[in-house]
Amino acid sequence: MTWVQPAAGCLTVGPSIVGVKVYLVQRALNLIGHGEQYDAATVAAVRAFQSAHRLPVTGLVDAVTWSALRTGYPFCIDRYTAEPAVPAGATSTARIEAMIAYATARLGTPYMWGGAGPIGFDCSGLVIQALYAGGRVVPGLTTDLHVQASFRDTNYMYASQLLHVPLSQRRRGDLVFYGPDLSHMAIYLGNGQIVEAVRPVIRIASMYADGLSAWPLVVRPFP
């Protein structure tokens, strides 16, 4: 079992990333409906803000511009890493329950594309942090990589060395992946229910509530 390493974080905010920091920049600039994507409208708004505040006009948000934006959160909010809630020698059952406890404690938390906490999550960001709470790291996958706009960590996790199992053998604590392009994932709770991050908030739902696939694929992080 690989133990958790904190994210490096403190990433400059720009078109290369998505997630919580992009959301906070857009909120500070009163940009609505951009879905945590650092698009051309966001670049233009940042440039205008920088010009009005006599800052270097780059269209990117470094620590100086972040401070001027008064987001209400530290620039290094992207360093957030869930602490393991189990000791190194914990059983698989204890790890599963720690993972599920982390996820269900965040019911009602807003969905943010690319979000990996603490104030918003997307589907895979929630799973990454919940796995951390259970003391599991997917080799090579970090939250710094998760927020990259071009990265698809649902695909990465499914293709990792985690154990694949048939849908008929699913059990509490498994990860379920949906859609032909594995565009969505959730944590299986048992009795046909999942906990998932979807807009607008993290919720508990039927395993088939999203209608993305009649036969979701299943991976077991804690054999």
Give the helices and strands, then pairings.
Blueprint: H1 20-28, H2 40-52, H3 63-69, H4 92-104, H5 123-133, H6 143-146, H7 153-158, E1 163-165, E2 175-178, E3 184-190, E4 193-197, E5 202-206, E6 217-220
Antiparallel strand pairs: 1-6, 2-3, 2-6, 3-4, 4-5
Helix pairs in contact: 4-5
Could you walk me through the main structural features you see in this protein, from its secondary elements to its overall organization?
The chain has seven helices and six strands; from the N terminus they run αααααααββββββ. It has a domain at 20-77. The chain is elongated, with a radius of gyration of 18 Å. The longest helix has 13 residues, at 40-52. It has 223 residues and is of the alpha+beta class. Helix 4 (92-104) packs across helix 5 (123-133). Strand 3 (184-190) and strand 4 (193-197) form a beta hairpin. A six-stranded antiparallel β-sheet has the order 1-6-2-3-4-5. The model has no long low-confidence stretch (mean pLDDT 95). The protein has helices at residues 20-28, 40-52, 63-69, 92-104, 123-133, 143-146, 153-158; strands spanning 163-165, 175-178, 184-190, 193-197, 202-206, 217-220. Helix content is 28%, strand content 13%.
Q: What is the H-and-E element order?
A: HHHHHHHEEEEEE
Question: What is the overall silhouette?
Answer: elongated
Q: Strand portion, in percent?
A: 5-15%
Unreliable runs: none
**What level of helicity do the residues show?**
25-40%
C-alpha end-to-end distance? 11 Å
Strand arrangement across the biggest beta sheet: 1-6-2-3-4-5
Question: Sheet bearing the most strands, described?
Answer: 6 strands, antiparallel
Based on helices, strands and strand pairing, what is the structural class? alpha+beta
The count of β-strands is 6
Query: How many individual helices?
Result: 7
Average per-residue pLDDT, rounded, comes to 95
Any idea what the radius of gyration is? 18 Å
